[in-house]
Amino acid sequence: MSQNPPLLRPDLAPRPIFDSAREKGGRRDGQPTIGMVSLGCPKALVDSERILTRLRAEGYAISPDYKGAGAVIVNTCGFLDSAKAESLQAIGEALSENGKVIVTGCLGAEPEYITGAHPSVLAVTGPQQYEQVLDAVHSAVPPSPDPFVDLLPASGVKLTPRHYSYLKISEGCNHACKFCIIPDMRGRLVSRPAHAVIREAEKLVEAGVRELLVISQDTSAYGLDRKFATERGHRAHITDLARDLGSLGAWVRLHYVYPYPHVRDLIPLMAAHSESGGLVLPYLDIPFQHAHPDTLKRMARPAAAAKTLDEIAAWRAACPDITLRSTFIVGYPGETEAEFQTLLDWLDEAQLDRVGCFQYENVKGARANDLPDHVPDPVKQERWDRFMEKAQAISEAKLAAKVGRRIEVIVDAVDADGATCRTKADAPEIDGNLFIDEGFEALSPGDIVTVTVDEAGEYDLWGRLG
C-alpha cells in the first residue's frame, strides 16, 4: 500500500469525489447535466458544492466526466502564478474534451487573463458570484426541472466523501500580507451568522458526516465584523462556535487559525482532562509563514516569533496531545541565509507536528513583487530542500513515539489491500494516514475505531484493530 506524504502547497484542495449513488437512481431522460472541475483551496471546494447544490435544486444532474455534461464549470485558483497556470491548463482541457466551459473562482477576478488564453469560454465570473454562474449555466444548458423526480439530498451536493465535510464560517480577510492577493479577490472579512453555521453543521451530522473541518481565510477573526453579536442563541465568536459545534457529536477540526492571544481559550476545549475537553480535536492549523522578525516585517505580518514559541509551550502544557500544523514560505524577497537559518532553528525549537512549505512566487498584484533582493530560484530550491529535510526528520521522530499506543482513527477508504484511516492528528489530503493491513474487512468509510500503532514512517503510521 503506497504512502501518502503531505501536499506541500497550501492552495491545493482534495480531488473532487463524485458519487453517482447520491443521484438516487441516476439521470432521468432529458435531464440537463453539468460537470465541475474544482481547483484551489478547500474554501473554493465549498463554493463548488454550493453551486452544484443550487443546480441540483433546479433539476440539473451532475456528470463525473466531461463527455456526459452539457457544459463544464471550472472553479479556478489565482493564489500563485503556478496555480494560475494550472487553472488555464484545466480550462483548456475542459474546452478540448467538452467545448462548453464556464469559468468562476479566484482567477475569474482577472477575466482578460482568462479570455486572452481561452477566448472561447462561455463566461467568466469571480469568486462567490453564484448568481452569475447560474445565469451562465442557464444560457448554455437551459434548465428542465421535474419537481416530481428531482430530489436534492438534505445536505446538498458534496464533493468530498460522505463522512467528512468542510464547513466555511466566513469569507474574506482583513490582513494585508504583501505576498497575498486574497483580500483583493475575496474582499474583507464577512462572517456568517453563528446560528446559520450551526444549522448547516446539524444538517451535515444528521446526513452522516462524522468530521467537520472548519475553514475560512482567518478562522480566529470569526465574528469580528459582527462585533461578536449573539443571534438566535449563538454568539459569533470562534470559541463559542467551536464549543457549539463540539456539542454535535462529530469530530471538529480547526483550520487557518491565526495565532491571536484568544486562541489559548480554544485549548481547554481540546484537552481531554479539562471540564469541557474533547469537544474539539486537539489540532490547530496555524499559518506562521516564517520565524525571522525582519522577514515577517517585509511580509507585513506580526514579528513575534519568540512569543509564538511561548504560546506553543503554553498550548502543549494545557493539552499535551495537541497537534500543530503550519505552512511556511522560503525564498521570500530579501531573505538572507541568516534569516533562513533562524527559521530552521525556530523549527527545531517549535517541533511542529505537521509542516508544509512552498517556495515564494510573484503573484500579479501582490505588493511583494516590488520588494528588492529577490532570491534566485536555485537558492529557493536549496532552502526548500533543507527545510523539508528537517521537517521530515521531526515528523518521523514524532510518529515513532506513537508506536505501541492505542489511538482512535477514522476510516477514509477500504479496498482489497486494507483500510486507509486518519488519526485525530491528520487532516484529509494534507497530512498523513494510518493503514490497517489485516482484519479490516468489516470496516467502512466513516467508522471511528481504536487501533494499536505497530509501525511508523516519515509521514504515515500502520496499525491493527484493538
TrEMBL record:
Statement: the UniProt record of this protein carries the keyword Plastid: no
Keyword field: 4Fe-4S, Cytoplasm, Iron, Iron-sulfur, Metal-binding, Ribonucleoprotein, Ribosomal protein, S-adenosyl-L-methionine, Transferase
A Pfam match: Radical_SAM
One cellular-component annotation, GO: ribosome
Compositional bias (Basic and acidic residues): 20-30
Family: Belongs to the methylthiotransferase family. RimO subfamily.
Protein name: Ribosomal protein uS12 methylthiotransferase RimO
Source organism (scientific name): Paracoccus simplex
UniProt lineage: Bacteria, Pseudomonadati, Pseudomonadota, Alphaproteobacteria, Rhodobacterales
Name of the gene: rimO
